[in-house]
Amino acid sequence: MNAAAMTSFALPEEQRKKLVRLTLLWMTTMMVLFPLLASLGYFMRLYQAQWINGIRPEWFYAVLTLHGLGMVGTWFVGAMAAVSYLLARYVQPSLFVSRLAFVGTVAGVGLLIAATLGGLFGTGWYFLYPLPFYSQGVWPGWATGCFFGSLAVLGVAWLLWSVDLLAAIARRYRLSHALAWHVLRGESEPSIPPLVLIVTVSLIALVSGLVAGVIVLALFGAEWLVRGFANDALLMKNLIFFFGHIVVNITMYLGVAVVYEALPQFAGRPWKTSRVVAVAWNAVLLLVILAYFHHLYMDFAQPLALQQVGQISSYLISVPAAVVSIFGGLALIYRAPMRWTLASALLFFGLMGWAIGGAAAVIDSTVAVNFRFHNTLWVPAHFHSYYLMGVVLMLLGFAHNLGVELAGRAESALVRGGILGLLFIGGYGSLWMFYWAGAHSIPRRYAIYPNELSRGTHDAAIAVIFISLVLLAALVYLWDTGRRYLQALRT
Amino acid sequence: MNRCFPLVLVGLLFCLPRWVAAGAAGALGDEREPPPRPNEELLINQVVPDIRLLTPQGPLQLSRLWQDRPLLLTLVYTRCAGICVPFLRSLQAAADRDAGAGRDYDIVVVSFDPRDTLADLEEAAEELHVHRQPGWTFATAAPADVERLSKAVMFWTRWDPASQQYDHPGLLLAIVHGHILRVLTGASVHPARFREMVAELRGRFVPSYPLPNPRIPFRCFQYRADGSFRLDWGALLLLVPGTTALGLTAWLFGFGSGRR
Amino acid sequence: MAPQVVAFRLFLVVTAVIVAVFLWVAWSTRQSVPTIDLHKAYALRRRFFYALGTILLFGMVLTFPHMPYPPGDHPPERIVFVVAKQFAFGISDRPLLNDQDWEAATYAEPVQIPVGQLVEFRVTSFDVNHGFAVFNPEGELLGQTQAMPGYVNRLRMRFDRPGRYDIFCLELCGMGHHRMRGVILVVPAGGGPQAAAAAQPR
Q1: Which residue intervals of A49-121 are DSSP H helices?
Q2: Fewer Cβ in 10 A, N or C end of chain C?
Q3: What ipTM goes with this model?
């Protein structure tokens, strides 16, 4: 079933057209935001390299906040849009809700830009309590309000979207089928595409993460509005990291779902929901929720049992990823009559980025190691690995293939080679500088490095060169895919 | 004759000198190493027996004192030619500097010597210049009560007939609501350790549990001084996201699915 | 060898294997076959599962005993009080009870700790979350804990060499995050009047 072309649908033509247009809108937004937000990252590394003078450090922290939340949001909506599109082969999500989510996302991003670039709100993307209330005169109260307003709008929009997708799946599949429990018992009918299984697991977890975000916002709001009400810092940290951890990990899994669905059409082989796949993804549903404790290892007030649960579940969650998804992807491609295009290369090597980032994550999820690595540049190193060289590649692959199939224009080997070369050299080069700096104890989120940590300045200067290549790749990609989209919209 | 009898005889002959020696040691006083000092790690959060104190103002249950305020309790005796006087003087000096006795905590000096009378204790208080000072209580107790208290807090005494003196450790206990919060041992009360102890008594600086704040309605846990904890209402908030997700899923796939 | 060096080398080895496997699989498509031998593939996957499981179990067994949480076995020989507040660390032998104490501690002479003494840092914050991270004179991170308002985290360390040890903030705490620092001095055992006065047997 999933070896068919991306644009082959059993949908009425008019509905198919609307779906395609809406997806193109989402993908265009994603592709445009990518270089814009990446240039903010470029700015940060330039600042750390001390190549930018005359700008106050407050700008660094405001840009850091916009880059972080912007990128998390961009790839999240990109992943949701991609799986929504692919799910339309099997179920009927609501286009109205998707459009509503788009409007909400635009509004939320607008508020975020106002808060950060307008108000210099600079707490970092996980807005750790009570920092939003302690600006030291840098950001005004309205910027804090804008930021929380942004989160509220985005949260509501995304929660509605998630519920709608889950409802669409529920309209066709029983829960036990959607989670492939019958496959666990050895039954093969009904046949459940891995996409449906992975998206169901992901959305259940995602709802819990977004609800945690709602609770956090409510508690922040209560403290802001109700005199005499104060929050417990440990509880807030647990809630905030649960929310963030889930949103980021689910984005990753949705990207992987796209690979499960899209890669087979290039390999000429199917990727089915076997018993092992069913076991793996059901395990992920539990483990992804428990693993969030690995964000609080350095909070010694957290009970020891929870720290141990954090390490155990973080270790265990690597097993379904490595043994089932990554191994499965490798086996799918091994000696396959593979049609190598830009899209298939991005989808395939996106799995590699996920694997590398996952390895770094498992190492950092060891408490004894985290004691040395926590909040050093090792942290952005690992999440940029499975984001920039993982889910970003996967979604760019999806978006590009959509353009290729719709526009019917052949690929240029030069453009393909150029984009891949720039992305790989630039991407892995900038990652290497993060890992190298993190292994040498350079802290993350420093606008300026003191003399004792001058290696950070030096490493940032080298990273700037690699990020330039990534930016160039993003622009070339935008040009190549964008013109296909324009052509598709004209026909 | 039974074949085992010679073995039994040998065994008895082997053991007999040791029994004799042990008995002699008991009669003459123990020449071995003194028992270990009270160990704070073992005593944290242990319950202090609620013994009956005999004070110049009349009998008094120990719990009556700790109901009002945390206590700093020490065990001494007035005929002491050893550490008791330096220990009490250093305690008085540290308490004077801190100026918290009678307000943030009470200091209870209990004599473990059955020969000490209330008059002896009043004299000792006068020598320390704390007689009738608020926050200072000098008391004796019945020998059985002293023994009960000593056992609970790892305090020991050993009578030396040669010097007519008791050997014993210097001990200062911080007691909150009948539980041991801190233990300080040594020949004198060091000012820095005393400051740290009373800071904890005041609830300002306690290891690994949250500082009291009545404005916070939701916490994950309620911690205690010994590091144990129990769940608080905030922990329920951590369960809400998961239960909401499961509930919503059940509803969507159950009643709300519209599947035929 | 510092744990971060071990971890980094392990990561490099794993990454090299991952990259090699992916490139090899991609290269293999030049000689395609209609289907692969699934039995062999499943057998390989089973072996991979057992190997990965063994490595992870080994990792847990090896690293669980080295968690940095203070054990109850023996008390520290020295307690140092740390209060983090935007944007400096107050570090003192005495408890810091208010803003005045914190400010005085930020200006005071650095705390001196004798080599080899088990020190317990009692770390809290008077405002937002900070990160109390101890760096050795070579700029290597030795250990850290969060400074969280309303909580005290206990970080135990033993210093094996004298020198100046910098404290840097490792949790984003506002615009001055990058300049928030402190310092402690590790002195030879028995050395320094301040160290002698503050070090007390328990």
Answers
A1: 57-87, 95-113
A2: N
A3: 0.94
